[in-house]
Design goal:
The chain has one domain. It is 77% helix and 0% strand. The chain has six helices and no strands. It is elongated, with a radius of gyration of 18 Å.
Length: 170
């Protein structure tokens, strides 16, 4: 995708701050997401008039709707949802949908690394083997991670969002 200089700068600075904040204090500041949205709306409206404004608004809504169900089911934090919505305001609906897909893939890879680094891969593998055998026995059942097990811990997702966005815009 061919992004304008202001869009690249907005994504780079916004995602950099979001990742640093999420890794250090496990929170993405509203100022980052809302700042990205404001910049996107202003610049898209300035350079593209009403069409540019609509491009940005539709991207914002698409980004919001991608991860909102995960937030509603407590599988993701609100900051992650707002960050993807802000990305949508910058890059538009088509690219933010691809970014969301790439984010899920990057998140899976990062989660496996996170679980492995915490020594939780053997326990997770045992759980999934057990669930596989239950499935073959036609008694499918989800076996949740034990309390404190690495696979049950939350991890900062802004890094996955940044990786997914980078993959989508390249």
């Amino acid at each position: 995708m061919d992004l304008s200089g202001w869009a690249v700068a907005t994504l780079t600075v916004g995602l950099f701050i979001a990742v640093l904040s999420d890794l250090s204090v496990r929170k993405i500041p509203n100022a980052v997401s809302f700042g990205m949205v404001t910049i996107a709306l202003v610049f898209h409206a300035w350079f593209g008039q009403w069409e540019g404004l609509m491009f940005s608004l539709v991207g914002l809504i698409a980004g919001l709707l991608c991860f909102l169900p995960l937030y509603l089911f407590a599988a993701m934090g609100a900051g992650d949802v707002k960050l993807l919505a802000a990305i949508g305001a910058v890059v538009g609906a088509k690219v933010v949908l691809m970014a969301a897909l790439m984010t899920v893939i990057a998140g899976g890879v990062l989660a496996l690394g996170y679980i492995t680094a915490r020594g939780g891969l053997p326990a997770m593998a045992r759980r999934y083997v057990s669930m596989f055998w239950l499935l073959l026995a036609r008694q499918p059942e989800y076996i949740p991670p034990a309390p404190g097990e690495a696979a049950g811990l939350r991890f900062p997702y802004a890094l996955a969002i940044a990786c997914g966005t980078a993959l989508a815009v390249i």
